[in-house]
Fold these 2 entries.
Entry 1:
Amino acid sequence: MNIILLGPPGAGKGTQARLLVEDRNMVQLSTGDMLREARSSGTEMGKKVAAVMDAGNLVTDEIVIGLIREKLEAGGDHGGFIFDGFPRTLAQADALGNLLEEEGQALDAVVEMQVDDDELVSRITARSTCANCGEVYNDLTKPIPADGVCTSCGKKAEFKRRADDNEESLKTRLLAYYKQTSPLLGYYYAKGDLKTVNGLGEIGEVAGAIKSALA
Ligand code: AMP
């Protein structure tokens, strides 16, 4: 099964993708994670996208489509792909459709995670992640453990805040979402692929809603 998790920054796409990976042996393809990795390993592409990402703008379609193409072509034995943070433009959505077709695969569902803007701002400005495994923490609802040991990977870890998780970049990221990404809702609705879930509430509740939407 191949699915897209669609929603604004802070909707919980990454958190839910990690659960789907555990439960269904799926593979998470997060273009945001791939781009951050390119930055931290200092590749030419990583250097090129750094300022764009920190400001909260979208990097070019060409770059992210190239990243996804590589992963799809690599194939592998697993329960399918979860596209997390991709596609974000109509051009990316068209490209994904073509890439899947070339690989003899199909898109099974697009799950929209709805969360209102006030909640997104409060989630994102309080967010940090385990540098070792990527587990997400929140100052208000799931604080970093006092002993510095990540509850997910069990290792003593550094907990990092993303450079773009600040109010200024978030405004730009939300604008990019509404302007460039939200047209995908209509695009996938028209294809009959769109399922909408309420992204508010406990992580387990949202996971349950996604499970029902995929049943
Ligand atoms: P994310 O981790 O999904 O919030 O992505 C972080 C940043 O990476 C975004 O604000 C963009 O600058 C860039 N990015 C991630 N995925 C895409 C994409 N599909 N298209 C364009 N830019 C992206």
Note: The CA atoms of residues 181 and 194 lie 14 Å apart.
Entry 2:
Amino acid sequence: MMGGVFVGNCNLLELRKKIDMDRLPRHIAIIMDGNGRWAKKRFLPRTAGHREGMKRVIEIVEVAEKLNIEYLSLFAFSTENWKRPKEEVEGLMKLLVEYIRIELDRIHKNNIKIQTMGDISRLPEFARKEVERAIDLTKDNTKMVLNIGLNYGGRSEIIRGIKNLLEDVRMGKIDIEGVDEDSFKRYLYTSDLPDPDLLIRPSGELRVSNFMLYQIAYTEFWFSDIYWPDFKEEHLYMAIIDYQRRNRRFGGI
Ligand code: IPE
Ligand code: IPE
Ligand code: MG
């Protein structure tokens, strides 16, 4: 639908002007999908799509930061993505490391904090170490949180939270009567993040694929047919403009 549409600098500026800077989403989440199909369309290996997708990550982080978005959550690797061929999984892990090596200095200089959601202990050691280095270096940064889903699944996050909660009940640290939505939230990877205001999924799929299941209860969704490697600044602007036209009622009137 929007794929391949050329938006020149002029239109980009026009679009940007339509954004109400006083009503920005605080937290934007993106399911970065369509790398494989982008590559297939060009008779390229799937890894070429992932590589192009990584370039979009670099750009979108910068755009979000310039817009003063406080939290950006990116789905990079799901608990189900291990089902893919070994070579593709390894390629994705190597790209993750490459991304950190290219971008970490700039991210840190721009006061961005990197954090992850998902069980990173299961990542191959070379990738886990690099991720831990990024988390550690940026842990005191305050401008924006870049929250990356790595070996992340919404259901496994909830189960993990319940297990930790039960353990705290057993240890007498919390009593069952005291468990409510706010106290349960502390057991999720996103304990220190507000829920996403806007969830973006490119690639034409109309599903959430196990992403932030607990957190998206009242999130606004923005779907698009374009593949993630074609996702540019203007698409983020379009999503935000659409979001600002919505009437969020949270169950009220
Ligand atoms: C998203 O692109 C990247 C990851 C899931 C890691 P895909 O690789 O899922 O691309 P499609 O959906 O096959 O086009
Ligand atoms: C979701 O995309 C996971 C990531 C973007 C990391 P998938 O390509 O894995 O999702 P499905 O298989 O289309 O649901
Ligand atoms: Mg996909």
Note: The chain is about 45% helix and 15% strand.
